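Entry 12.
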Amino acid sequence: MIVKEINDIRRINLHLHTTVSDGLFSPAQVVKRAQEIGLDLFSITDHDTADAYKMLSDQLASLRILPGMEISSMHYGNDVHILAFGCDFKNKALHEMTEMYLQGRKNRAIRMIELLAEMGIKISLEEVIAVAGSRELIVRPHIAQILLKRGYVASKNEAFDKYIGNFKPAFVPKPELKVESVIQIIHDAGGWAVVAHPGKLVNAKYVHEFIEMGLDGIEVWHPDHYQAEVEAFTALAQKNGLFMTAGSDFHGDNERNNPFDAVPATELILSSVRELYQEYQWRCSER
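Predicted 3D structure (tokens):
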């Protein structure tokens, strides 16, 4: 049963966002789209929350889905995103971390709105919350969306470049645990920690340090990775016995480079993903 099920996993996308964080599709719409295009395995990986899965409880039984979330962390003061796959979302430490991030993001948004106001750019917290989804989990693109709507910028990219991007005038860092702590929480929740889009790290060599911390895998294929990076991360994963994953980081159809489609994963990556999914099924049977 498992062999047949695992071997026919060929069309995958293990990095998708919904309206629960900063995506444009609801969880139900993401599932419907995945079914329509024939994905064999996919994962909803909203930022710092797994609430999308609560909204899909009646649909999950018939789907091949690897539950996940994209958790914020920091390393030497730099952002690092860790994909947490296969966790027990009822785990106390995991729940406390996500709740801490939820409140921290709201406090951060309040301060960013205050800084914008000091520059004569007046938007309200209520406006931002209105586009932030069911959990009111506020991320910077939500603020950029309001700045665009109110005519303060011509695009979301301009909002980041001029106001809310890293170290810009209205930038406020979000509360983040260190990478090592996040990896430990994921492990304690029975999941696997996979570094997301490592090609976007300030220093790609950080991955070696994450491996020493207990990292389980690398998102080898991502639309922002050059082919040379895909090959380098593949070799690094193989050398260290890590899982390899692939995902488009889809947020909405307005993004040309992050499509909702099966990602071009190599047979080597697919083999690793099948092994990860099989391990997930086994752990679920033991819980």
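Annotation: The mean pLDDT is 92. The CA atoms of residues 51 and 71 lie 13 Å apart.
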